[in-house]
Amino acid sequence: MSIETAIAELAPRFGERLSRAEAVRAQHGADEAHHAPHPPDAVIWPESTAEVAEIARTCSAHGCPIVAWGAGTSLEGHVIPVRGGISLDMSRMDRLLEVHAEDMDVVIQPGITRKRLNEELRATGLFFPVDPGADASLGGMAATRASGTCAVRYGTMREAVLALEVVLADGRVIRTGTRARKSSAGYDLTRLFVGSEGTLGIITELTLRLHGQPEAISAATCAFGRLEDAVQTVIETIQMGVPVARIELLDPLTIRGFNGYSGYDMPELPTLFLEFHGSEASVAEQAETVGAIAGENGGRGFDWTREPEARNRLWAARHSAYYAQQSLRPGARGYVTDVCVPISRLAEAIAETEADLAESPLMAPLVGHVGDGNFHLSILIDPEDPAEIAEAARLAGRINERALRLGGTVTGEHGVGLGKRKYMAAEHGEAWGLMGEIKAVLDPAGILNPGKIVPGN
Amino acid sequence: MSIETAIAELAPRFGERLSRAEAVRAQHGADEAHHAPHPPDAVIWPESTAEVAEIARTCSAHGCPIVAWGAGTSLEGHVIPVRGGISLDMSRMDRLLEVHAEDMDVVIQPGITRKRLNEELRATGLFFPVDPGADASLGGMAATRASGTCAVRYGTMREAVLALEVVLADGRVIRTGTRARKSSAGYDLTRLFVGSEGTLGIITELTLRLHGQPEAISAATCAFGRLEDAVQTVIETIQMGVPVARIELLDPLTIRGFNGYSGYDMPELPTLFLEFHGSEASVAEQAETVGAIAGENGGRGFDWTREPEARNRLWAARHSAYYAQQSLRPGARGYVTDVCVPISRLAEAIAETEADLAESPLMAPLVGHVGDGNFHLSILIDPEDPAEIAEAARLAGRINERALRLGGTVTGEHGVGLGKRKYMAAEHGEAWGLMGEIKAVLDPAGILNPGKIVPGN
Predict the structure, then answer these.
(1) At a CB cut-off of 8 Å and minimum separation 6, what does B129 contact?
(2) I want to staple A268 with a disulfide (CB 3.0 to 4.6 A). Which of A24, A252, B213, B264 is the partner?
(3) How does residue B1 score in pLDDT terms, banded at 50, 70 and 90?
(4) Cα–Cα distance between A405 and A456 in angstroms, integer?
(5) What is the least distance, in Å, from the CA of B8 to any CA of chain A?
(6) pLDDT tens digits, residue range B174-216?
């Protein structure tokens, strides 16, 4: 078998850095969400671009699938090797290669995680703002075009990546982009690889744009009697042009999850978590403006704080949302949705979703990066119960179709993976076919993360 | 001949909207820069996407080149039909289709120019910030990934385009992107077409991101004794994270050009033009901060004003720079360079360039979007004198090679066109070949703006 031939060729070369142990394969055969697992035939831990290129050449010659693996925190089954083959665990390629503090950029290997990157940057006065919650690897974040809580102010991985080194399916190593802030020098290959989920090439190096640590940071929370009032506050804040750094919506169920999971004691009401970055004066001005908007929309108190401790506690809660939500139903897994709509349609999208949920037997807490028009349900299911899986799929289907009808997308930040592929034709029309044509040129043998994103394979 | 066959088929269909008149062909055979003109065989003014698709199908069948034409303001020969064929003049597809004020986006046809777009948006409280100086068409600006004076704050066409409708070489019509602010739904085809200079498809509709008109705007100028002190002021301003809306460097020659061309009376010194957007308080704070930085670097007076009239006068001067510079030598044309480097290397890039110029017989005024690390020379040449053209090419070559050595790009915003193609291999290495492979899939017959961007054709 061709996979076996590839592994047999690579095994002596990689020694202990190639494993076929069942536990290791199982670990690399699942992500954090509800998708059915499928193990790779082997896992390899490369340590250099040259090794990745060697693996690509061998796998290309033998038609053996390669699935890149970062931290395994993705939620749409991207890393599940549905056709077997090799999981390429990038965790040993985790070096910070260059910090250019004067240019506010950094060159890294893909295996470094975002928390470690920010720890290493602390002394420079700079930080990397893309924050999906999970401590994901930066390579994985680029591959899924991740974003998260700070995207409303600082953009997503689309804006954050300045340049890439990529190993192509045939082992060629290319570099895209430069450290210059902008360029009109030909096709934007950097943006083509960002979000390609390992189906066009393996990212082996990234140059990322950094930002200055803000002079002042303040955080705020505000509870509302009705979900729609919280949403209206968000819409007005964005439309006023307030440069909020984070603006997150949490529904009463999610707050109940925090209270139980992390021992908080917040009123179980629709709540906004906010953060403001800027000068002392600007942060105060922003908080005042948003406080006034919230007040006009019936916000109950607008508590803001400059205390780092209170702030960290708030965002630690927010980052635990996925787990806190699952704790609402012990043993459950979250079937997670990820739509993003134009902000003028956000209230409608959420209200119709809530109406769906009122008629469903399943519990589905909601959180949202609402400043971008992006929100998630975590539909809590018993992963062993086909009826519950079917009901979650039905709810998710309605949410996704609604997002498309409202001019939005079925995935704001989680990516396509296994879960969203069936919506690609509806979202992209003929352009989906074009994605397939591009994939066929870059990966004619279809060895890079097969079964994902494009039609057919 | 295949071009003749295509035109013969299209002529009865388009009537007076297809012209073979010599003057019309000559007008569509040149841009505003020094590149040798070459006329198309015919010019067609399409009025709908369906017509563009029909032209593409006919031209595809007969191997007839198609070169899209916006306002003809590009500087690298992008619109010059070096293989003849048809110039597709998009000026009749210039409608504003939808304004979504609540979502801060707009849907337009490609022929509308940026000034008209902003006039039409005035009453909405929104504006479109990408400002390359020339009153370019938005389709052309997307095709060249244009930017200009406001990019330091608001980004380039890369960030500004949310979605596109594109006619492919074979006449298929695709839509890329949605009105959602972010998406992880597959390959970023929007960014692939932005900057592709009409070589991958013809843009027939654009959805653009808008911004709120700032509550307060102030402008400032500051002159310096030495160019390096002005550059150092820029570097420190950016590194401090001051959100300047514009920060432009003009050398003494350019100021002399303004004084003569537009009747200004500014000291002929290296000068920064700045603009600040924000709340009243934030604008004052920004001006104060930058004023202090300029003072520490020897800036001579830091004049700032809230007067719209003085501000408009300033930017009218800036926008006339290309013509003001040419007026320094009557009859001359500008041979324009466009490098962009990491900001830490900007001082070095400019100083070495100035040293080159000191030894050259040619005059070459400098302006720069220096907040991005991007600057232009306009090397003033007699377009009929081969020796001067050769000297300009030699100077430009040194500047471009230096930019690559310093980690930058040969084109920050003007695009590749005819002028920068020879540097693509040096800038992109093997990735340039990949661009050619992608072009071959999307345009197998090579009819879309042949002779541009990719290797070979």
Answers:
(1) B150, B153, B154, B160, B211
(2) A252
(3) low
(4) 25
(5) 30
(6) 999 999 999 999 999 999 999 999 999 999 999 999 999 999 9
Average pLDDT, whole number, for chain B? 95
Task: State pLDDT tens for residues A144-159.
Answer: 999 999 999 999 999 9
Q: ipTM score here?
A: 0.96
- Least CB-CB distance to B373: which of A180, A185, A441? A180
Measured between CA atoms, the residue of chain A closest to residue B175 is A431
pLDDT less than 70: residues of chain A: 1, 457
Best B98, B165, B181 member to test A by mutation, with max A CBs in 10 Å, is B181
What is the pLDDT at residue A1? 57
Comparing CB atoms, the residue among B180, B192, B414 nearest residue A409 is B180
Please indicate whether, in this complex, the C-beta atoms of A145 and B285 are within 8 angstroms of each other: no
Ordered structural domains, chain B, with CATH:
2-91 (3.30.43.10), 93-212 (3.30.465.10), 214-327 (3.30.70.2190), 329-447 (3.30.70.2740)
Judging contacts by C-beta atoms under 8 Å, the chain B residues touching residue A146 are 184
Nearest CA in chain B to A433: B174
Give B-chain residues touching A241 at CB under 8 angstroms. 211-212, 214
Q: How many residues are there in chain A? A: 457
| Nearest CA-CA distance, residue B404 and chain A, Å | 9
| Per-residue pLDDT, A18 | 98
| CB distance B81 to B67 below 8 Å | yes
